Each structure stands twice: as structure tokens, then as C-alpha cells.
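agent> Task received from the user: take the single chain below, predict its 3D structure, and emit C-alpha cells. No templates, no multimer pairing.
agent> Plan: (1) validate residues, (2) run structure prediction, (3) serialize to C-alpha cells, (4) report one or two observations.
agent> Step 1 OK, no nonstandard residues flagged.
tool_call: predict_structure(input=
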Amino acid sequence: MNSSALRQWSSRIAVAQISIAPNDSGLPGIASLRTIVGAMMTVGLVLSVLALIVSAVVWGFGANSSNPHLAGRGKVGVLVACGAAVLCGASVTLVNFFWGVGQAVS
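)
tool_result: status=success, residues=106
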């Protein structure tokens, strides 16, 4: 097969278009999985609130006992707890946003 015949042959090949969308009936137990994920989000938010309280107490003890290292660790803990709460609360929105971005890629 010479190169011109190969080019003609390759130009005739149609590129397959794949169209896959998520569905609710593909696997058994999807409803249970959604319930579990929702419960894990709740646990994450509760633990974030607990970490925020503990970090605020550590920050207060450090500030009142003139211990800058302890106060700094408390501040970092407060920021991490707030960040974790934001991620837990916005996780569904973030996944949907990036799903839309991925679907826009062609």
C-alpha cells in the first residue's frame, strides 16, 4: 500500500463519537451510596466544628498564657477547620462545576 492510498483510506475512517452520561440505574445500591456520602459530609462538617472549637480554645490559652507557639498553632487550626468546613459544604458544587468544565472540553 503506497502513501497516497494510505491517506485516502485514513481519510475515509470516521472518528467514533462516544457519548456517555451518568445514570441512576446503572448499578444497584446507588441510593444507599448517596445516603452514605451525605452522612460522611455531615460527619465532616461536625468534625470541622469540633476542630474549630478546640483550635479556638488552644488559641485563647496560648494568647492568655503569653505562649506565641500555642497561639499560632490555634490560629492555624482555626483556618484549617474553616477550610475543611468550606470543602465539605461546597464539595457537591465543586464536583458539579468541574463536571461542567470537563463536559465543555471538546
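agent> Step 4: summary for the user.
The CA atoms of residues 60 and 91 lie 31 Å apart.
agent> Done.
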